[in-house]
Write a structure and sequence with these properties.
By secondary structure, the protein is α+β, with helices and mostly antiparallel strands. Strands 20-14-16-15-23-24-22-25 form an eight-stranded antiparallel sheet. A five-stranded antiparallel sheet has the order 7-8-12-10-11. It has a domain of 218 residues: Vanillyl-alcohol Oxidase, Chain A, domain 3 (3-Layer(aba) Sandwich), CATH 3.40.462.10. Helix content is 25%, strand content 22%. The N terminus and C terminus are likely disordered. Bound molecules: flavin-adenine dinucleotide and 2-acetamido-2-deoxy-beta-D-glucopyranose (NAG) (3 copies). One 2-acetamido-2-deoxy-beta-D-glucopyranose (NAG) binds next to loops. This is L-gulonolactone oxidase. It catalyses: L-gulono-1,4-lactone + O2 = L-ascorbate + H2O2 + H(+). Its EC number is 1.1.3.8.
Length: 586
């Protein structure tokens, strides 16, 4: 069966004329006045709807100002969301506890892009999409150096959550470290018209609080970013073994401006990305159309999902491993989506910065038979995304523990992430932002299977829970604000030495807590909710009793294999059998 997906994938790549379905709006209204807000995967961490009584779509900064004033005057809770709502935790959802609320969508506030070529800077409206910004600056012969790999995001949204690409060079891989101006609309006194615009610059006290602020301080209306003269990049991948990866990642990050590493633990494989800038006059018109962000035939996404589900329910690890091998083989063949022209013909692939850093071709074309693989309307891929940020030298201990765990529980138990993108390892620099990274850091991302409903345990979930707890608790990693299951945020405030400074600014700019919600408290303040039956299954809690797992289905709360203090939901065929020993394949 896997052969046919492989083939379909290959055919798709060669033919590339499949038509696609645009992502739906994250705001779905039922016609009776109320609307629901979703993230791009269609499901929040708690799987509950986010009901919003009123949504407004300002087109100008002045309309934004009036919306904030209206909410303040009417004592409404207020949140902002972008065109596609790509943040996974429920941050964009306005509070429900106090009755009425307003949601501002920035999807129509997306036209202003003013380039100041002499000063190598650009000022953009908060709702402008990343692709539009990149294309506009490239057309002016300039380049934006740092950007996330996924282009379906808005400038306001990506800055707010500390989004990043990968670089230890220059100002580094985090976009917020390239900002030199930011306009923030905050609530104000009646005499000031209920709302005002703060024009912040790096010298302002509030600047470092406002850069990464999750929409908790106010609405970001304008962002001024530094640019550089246009440049190209030359990219190659080396798919090799993962030996010594713990001793190589530091040098790799230092040596190549846009380095990253994708580690496929079950396959003992690491793909090192060799990626440096080259001058514009070097020939090459390549693009990086990242495979995972290309439009997929809906049939393929559905059948991969269906098989993953059958394999998980059937505890078929070898099936998952076959799937992982075929995908890895395909990625190697097509260089992850790098294209010298129409297709990949060989390394290095050289192309303009604007075509190499960021992609998302599944966002565009129109039609019915292809889409982003995770489009919530198609029963396609459905997964969790864990993203942990480590002080650079500490990442080594994490790798060593993961390797130890892999070897103890058997590598087959790690095939689940290798079906997706393995462990994507990226590099970001120290930032002045209060809720940014205080030191040079390494970010690791991994995606893994999520069940269709909250009460269905996953066969290998104990492994991913242990890896998560290794990262966030044993090794003190910080969670990416825009990703992760809720447990990753437990106690997050104690991991930021400037957290109290941020809270001080919050009190000053938003004294009524207009921009707070029960969800933002849960995430940003890392508050643990009440532990209910089954809460461990979806990372809504760390289990401490069997009932937090699924004893009825054979999943019990057990200690970790490498990290004793971890508590994970592990399958054990009989409740009477001691199940602390690693499980085996079927
Ligand atoms: C497929 C995919 C790939 C991704 N790849 C990367 C990656 O490579 N690197 C990375 O770091 N991240 C990545 N992300 C995460 C993504 O960059 C963040 O989730 C980003 O915040 C999404 O921006 P958005 O415009 O969709 O914001 P939203 O999800 O709409 O909002 C995010 C937060 O910002 C607030 N907000 C939005 N606009 C404003 C505004 N104008 N003023 C004030 N507050 C605002 C919202 O209230 C919310 O709290 C990826 C996500 C997906 C789904
Ligand atoms: C929704 O909010 C707008 C302000 O942005 C306001 O003018 C309008 O009356 C509100 N609608 C409802 C039904 O409250
Ligand atoms: C590119 O331009 C630089 C100077 O700007 C020049 O030294 C170099 O020879 C040029 N290279 C090519 C391949 O044209
Ligand atoms: C596991 O999946 C593989 C690949 O689909 C299949 O060939 C095999 O028969 C399955 N094994 C079991 C025990 O279901």
């Amino acid at each position: 069966m896997y052969r046919s997906w492989w083939l379909l994938g290959a055919i798709h790549l060669l033919v590339s004329v499949v038509t696609a379905m645009l992502p739906q709006s994250p705001i779905q209204c039922d016609g009776t006045g109320g609307c629901n807000l979703f993230n791009s995967y269609g499901v929040w961490n708690d799987r509950k709807n986010c009901h919003v009584p009123n949504v407004t779509y300002p087109r100008t900064e002045n309309e934004l100002l009036r919306a904030v004033a209206y909410a303040n005057q009417n004592k409404l809770k207020l949140r902002v969301v972008s065109q596609f709502s790509h943040t996974i935790p429920k941050l964009a959802c306005p509070a429900t506890s106090t009755g009425n609320s307003l949601l501002i969508s920035t999807s129509s506030y997306d036209s202003g892009i003013e380039i100041d070529a002499a000063n190598l800077a650009v000022t953009v409206d908060g709702g402008v999409g990343l692709r539009k910004l990149i294309d506009t600056v490239e057309a002016a012969g300039l380049s934006l150096v740092a950007a996330p790999y996924w282009e379906g995001v808005s400038i306001g949204g990506l800055i707010s959550t500390g989004s990043h690409g990968s670089s230890w060079w220059g100002k580094g891989g985090s976009v917020h470290d390239h900002i030199v101006g930011l306009s923030l609309i905050v609530p104000a006194k009646q005499s000031e018209g209920y709302a005002k615009i703060l024009r912040l610059e790096p010298k302002d006290q509030l600047f470092n609080a406002a850069k990464v602020s999750m929409g908790l301080l106010g609405v970001i209306s304008k962002v001024k970013l530094l640019l550089e003269k246009g440049f190209k990049r030359s990219v190659s991948y080396d798919f090799t073994d993962d030996d010594q990866i713990e001793n190589k990642y530091m040098d790799h990050g230092k040596k190549y401006e846009f380095a990253d590493i994708t580690w496929y633990p079950s396959k003992h494989t690491a793909a090192y990305r060799y990626d440096n800038r080259v001058p514009l006059n070097i020939s090459g018109d390549g693009v990086y159309d990242f495979l995972g962000f290309q439009a997929n035939p809906i049939l393929v996404s559905k059948s991969v999902r269906a098989s993953e589900k059958v394999m998980d329910n059937g505890h078929n690890l070898s099936g998952k491993c076959i799937l992982a091998s075929s995908f890895l083989g395909y990625k190697k063949l097509v260089a992850n989506g790098l294209k010298n022209g129409l297709i990949f013909t060989g390394y290095p692939v050289i192309g303009n910065q604007g075509k190499m850093q960021t992609s998302g071709s599944c966002l565009y074309s129109t039609g019915k038979d292809s889409s982003c693989a995770w489009d919530p309307r198609i029963n396609g891929l459905f997964f969790y995304e864990t993203t942990a940020i480590f002080p650079a030298p500490k990442f080594r201990d994490f790798i060593l523990d993961v390797k130890k765990l892999r070897d103890l529980v058997k590598p087959e138990n790690f095939c689940g992430v290798d079906i997706y993108n393995g462990f994507l390892i990226r590099f970001i620099k120290a930032s002045e932002a209060y809720l940014g990274q205080p030191e040079e850091s390494v970010v690791v991302d991994f995606n893994y299977y999520r069940a269709d409903d909250a009460s269905t345990p996953r066969f290998d979930q104990d492994v991913w829970e242990e890896v998560e707890q290794l990262a966030f608790f044993k090794h003190g990693a910080k969670p990416h604000w825009a990703k992760n299951r809720n447990m990753a945020f437990l106690n997050v405030q104690s991991k930021y030495s400037k957290f109290t400074k941020f809270v001080g600014v919050k009190r000053q700019l938003d004294p009524q807590n207009m921009f707070s919600s029960e969800w933002s408290d849960e995430i940003v303040f890392g508050k643990e909710g009440a532990k209910s039956d089954g809460c461990g299954l979806e990372g809504m809690c760390i289990c401490s009793e069997d009932r937090h797992c699924s004893p009825g289905k054979g999943y019990f709360c057990k200690p970790g294999v490498v990290y004793e203090e971890a508590r994970v939901c592990r399958y054990s065929p009989s409740s009477n059998v001691e199940s602390d020993s690693p499980k085996t394949d079927l």
